[in-house]
Amino acid sequence: MPELPEVETARRGLAPKMEGRTFNHVQLRRKNLRFPFPKNFIRRLQGVTLDRLSRRAKFLVGELSSGETLLMHLGMSGKFSFEDAASPAKHDHVVFTMSGKDKPVIIYNDPRRFGFMELLAPGDVGRMAKLGPEPLSNGFSGPVLRTALAAKKSPIKTALLDQHIVAGLGNIYVCEALFLAGISPLRRADNVSPDMCEQLCAQIKKTLQLAIKAGGSSLKDFAAADGALGYFQHQFQVYDKEGAPCPKPKCPGSIIRTKQSGRSSFYCPDCQI
Ligand SMILES: [Zn+2]
Q: How far is the CA of 261 from the centre of ligand 1 (A)?
């Protein structure tokens, strides 16, 4: 599933082909993804310029010259690619042809169709309204995290996946950051000390930045917009490493897997307390 670094990688791939360009042609190859496309989706995009493509959590946010916002989410298996000529493949659901000399053709492909596209009225933030702080922003810090966790009796792993506490974190990066911070995923959220919160916050930022630098993780369904595969998965310390020796020097432990809220947690019971 695309996580924050993958979405940021997609954004960086798409921005040069979309920003400051007009939607010359929009083609929908079906009526819905996870949700139906907005009413008059094609008419509301064609002839409109995408001024800026930004990211909030796992949403791609396109500011349009019409005043509306194009909100795009990759769901479980969504990805963008570029084609020289429109030659639709299976699961290609949306085709944007942008203006410019090169007339880029941008294809949205999504086999499982958990992704979606929406148009928001000026000033409306839609599904982004209840998101917690952006993990890479200054608004996310040790004290902010500590405050958000203070009333949470759930395990820290579960709390970090709660988008109200911090936005855009998924299973992989939470497992990795908890390992690097030396905190057990089973520890109760309200029992994570201020010092631990500092450490955890720093490791979350570091893990995400490394992954973005590496171009996201290319787990099964993800490819960056330009088709290049990320390689962050080769740097995983614990994720999907059940049975492997703990990578921390001098730690005698090995990585175990457990289920929390239906998701696998990977951690070292010897050095994550
Ligand atoms: Zn260990």
A: 23
